TrEMBL record:
Residues 210-233 are annotated as: Disordered. This is DUF4191 domain-containing protein. The lineage of its organism: Bacteria, Bacillati, Actinomycetota, Actinomycetes, Kitasatosporales. It comes from Streptomyces griseosporeus. The chain crosses the membrane at residues 32-53, 59-78. Residues 219-233 have a biased composition (Low complexity).
Length: 233
């Protein structure tokens, strides 16, 4: 029993520490967060207390108002924290991959399936909506990356729909903060077993590419084998 109590106390302490850390991070980007949360909490409680006094039940309405004030404050805090996090992530390399990793159950994500010298990158997510290719970088440059990756997908899994999304701000682009919502709105057309089969085929394709033998023939001039590469017998 004591162990359970200690575990519960540790979990609560961890949760409070996480909330405090999130608040500090949010406050760096949102200086008004403290005043906004106070206004929401006090305002909600004040409204219910006023109604309670009007109808003659200030205690009951006060308790209800306190609970709803806490709930309203938590909702506002969550939204502003999320907005601040996206603001800090936007424009950073790999930001889209971080969003994909937290998209939720039912999705399998593979970061950086394609990349060019300018560090424009394409990530892949597989779920009941099919295959979603998410690109981040220069919109004009990533189009060729997306086209090449879609062509590859069509050869391997021709029976699965392939969607493409370019993350950014502008016409035809999807803002980072709207990426998760956009993907969750895609129509679900694949049953669970087909999603699993698709992931298996893509995984096998990756294994085949990684294990592909070097082409025979003379080595191009100036090209060197990487350290640790195969040596002649």
């Amino acid at each position: 029993m004591a162990r359970k109590d200690n575990a519960a106390d540790a979990a609560n302490a961890g949760r409070l520490k996480q909330i405090a850390l999130t608040y500090k991070m949010t406050r760096k980007a949102d200086k008004m967060i403290g005043l906004v949360l106070a206004a929401v909490g006090i305002g909600t409680l004040g409204v219910f207390l006023a109604i309670g006094f009007l109808i003659g039940h200030p205690v009951y309405l006060g308790i209800l108002g306190l609970l709803l004030a806490f709930l309203a404050t938590a909702i506002v805090f969550g939204r502003r924290a999320e907005r601040a996090a996206f603001g800090q992530m936007e424009g950073q390399p790999g930001a889209a991959a971080a969003v994909l990793d937290n998209i939720g159950r039912g999705w399998t994500t593979t970061p950086a399936v394609a990349m060019n010298r300018s560090q424009d990158v394409v990530h892949r997510a597989v779920g009941k909506a099919g295959i979603v290719l998410v690109a981040e970088g220069n919109p004009n440059r990533v189009k060729s990356l997306l086209a090449a990756e879609k062509k590859k997908m069509n050869r391997v899994v021709a029976d699965v729909p392939v969607h493409d999304i370019i993350v950014g701000n502008g016409e035809g682009l999807v803002e980072l903060k709207k990426l998760r919502t956009t993907m969750l709105k895609l129509p679900r057309v694949l049953p669970g077993p087909q999603v699993t089969a698709t992931n298996d085929r893509l995984r096998a394709m990756g294994d085949l590419l990684s294990n592909m033998p070097l082409p025979k023939g003379p080595m191009p001039k100036g090209m060197k084998l990487p350290k640790g590469g195969p040596k002649g017998r």
